[in-house]
Task: structure prediction
Amino acid sequence: MRISNIAAVSSSGAISVPTETSFLVIAGGGGAGYGGQGNWGSGGGAGGYRSAWNGETSGGGAAAESTFPVSVGTSYTVTVGGGGARGVGGSGSPGSSSVFDTITTVGGGGGLRYYPSGGTASLPGGSGGGAQAGDGPQGPRAGGSGTAGQGYPGGSNNGSGGPGGYSGGGGGGAGGAGGNANGAAGAGAPSTISGSDVTRAKGSSSTFAASVTPDGANSGGGGSNGYPTSGFAGDSGIVILRFRGISPTIGSGLTYSETKVGADTVITFTAGTDTISW
Result:
């Protein structure tokens, strides 16, 4: 349940410093693994997802967290994580962490490249990358694990599909695990912290002979694999704060926008790293 902001207006009627802020912190998603040559790699996992707003769940089915207490004169670090690079002839890179002071989220696990003999362990992350595709007797493999309270695992490769072997798993998302074998993307998680209902931190697909466009910057989604392309990079993350009271001083290293939603101020950070302070 949301803990309401208090003491936003002083006894004189002036707007004062907030005592707490709600937050949504999402890391960058993992990049897709390389397929190419009519084969297929596995999908990247979504960035870790932590929420403290209006009772909305965090990633991996975890309960909403408590709002964050703020103090006058204290500097709080904000970092927006980038998406992981797609694999060009190799596996995708993991996404980068997003941070609001002590609230840190883990970048999404990268997708693995197609490999004829298989055998590489899946990559963990905020949400896990999908299991590796390949030929031969590699046997079933589980997808990469997600981080507790942040995301779900990637899908396994336990099935056949495509030419001559196992198809890769889909990347896990904040709201659901990646699909198994030629797998669909793991579901994202919805939030109304910005004033609109937006679903972010989706996983990614590992789909033979299909190219799935990512959601775009600041959605925290994993990069999807697709033939004939070598797949997509992961989406960058985002940090959103919602509170009542005066706005903080924000360092020049951060890219952000500020809006009002009723009596609340919403600050959305979309790139960079620096500090903020009230």
Q: What stands out?
A: Residues 1-7 have pLDDT under 50 and may be disordered.
